[in-house]
Amino acid sequence: SNNLSGYLPTEIDQLRNLTNLKMEKNSICGVLPTGIWHLPTLDVLRIDDNNFVGQVPKEKITPKK
After folding, report:
1. CA-CA 20 to 30 A from 58: which of 17, 44, 48, 64?
2. Secondary element (H or E) of residue 22
3. Given this model, what pLDDT does residue 65 score?
4. Other C-beta atoms lying within 10 Å of the C-beta of residue 29
5. Any bridge partners for residue 57, and if so which?
6. Using CA of residue 58, residue 60, residue 47, residue 5, what is the dihedral sign?
7. Which residue, among 13, 63, 3, has the nearest Cα to 37 in the 3D structure?
8. pLDDT at 6 over 90
9. Is the Cα dihedral 26, 29, 49, 9 positive or negative?
10. CA of 16: how far to CAs of 1, 13, 19, 25, in Å?
């Protein structure tokens, strides 16, 4: 946890070279920007234990190891 709060900006989809985004255990809220699912190099997205609303596409979900 980094004690982050607020919303994830829609401009996150401009981070074309982003490979890892780990934001678990914070207080980030709102809907995840749809552009995040189209980032070409994103391999790791950890968003558990936040206050996001909406659904994650099933093909993007992998179990924790």
Report:
1. 17
2. strand 20-22
3. 64
4. 13
5. none
6. negative
7. 13
8. yes
9. negative
10. 25, 7, 9, 24
Q: Confirm if 39 and 63 have CB atoms less than 8 A apart.
A: no
Tokens for 49, please give them.
Answer: 């234990």
Residue pair 44/21 in contact (Cβ under 8 Å)? The answer is yes
**Encoding tokens for residue 43?**
């391999």
Q: What value does the mean pLDDT take over residues 17-46?
A: 94
- One-letter amino acid for residue 27 of the chain: S
Span 18-30, pLDDT tens digits? 999 999 999 999 9
CB atoms within 10 A of CB 13: 15
Residues in CB range of 43: below 8 A, 6 or more apart: 19, 20
